[in-house]
Amino acid sequence: MRVWLRSLILPAALCVAAALPAVAAPPASAPAREHLAPEGWESSYHDLHYSPVVKIGDRVIVSGIPALEGADDEAKARWLFQQLQAHLRSAGASMDDVVEMHSFHVARDHEEFRRRIAPVLKVHREFFQDHYPAWTAVATSGLYSKDASFELRAEAIIGSGKRAKARIAPAKTP
After folding, report:
1. Could you tell me the end-to-end alpha-carbon distance of the chain, in angstroms, rounded to an integer?
2. Which SUPFAM superfamilies does UniProt cross-reference here (predicted)?
3. Sign of CA dihedral 95, 150, 68, 43
4. How many alpha carbons fall within 13 Å on the CB side of residue 158?
5. Whole-number Å distance between alpha carbons of 93 and 84
6. C-beta separation of 154 from 84 below 8 A
7. Of 41, 82, 107, 172, which sits most exposed with the smallest number of CB within 10 A?
């Protein structure tokens, strides 16, 4: 009986192994991945176990930065965008290289969301005067940093800001 079971199990195991994809080493041309943290953000990596900045080739991913410092939402937004600049700089990128942002705003309803995003929009215009990044803004009931009323994450492509073109019709005047 053992010989008979072996003759069934071995071919079945070979069929399963042949169906599984082979685990291959990454190609030599794969971009390197670097984990970075600007000065003052090292505890994010060591204590909270996330990378404030990940650089893969020319792509830079900035984790959510909570708006923590400042007397009001406008000052907090300005501090946040300054922190974004520092995060990008740690990877060799600039604000001109930002291609996408996601912001999360603590709000109970649409009216509060619109009120809370207004100071962020004002400060956003100071940091992005042309060639605006794609941006998704989301209302949420809470953030990890309980004292933050909003948080921002971003992605950048190093050098993309030098050759940016806006192919958008001019704004209509009323």
Report:
1. 89
2. YjgF-like
3. negative
4. 16
5. 10
6. yes
7. 172
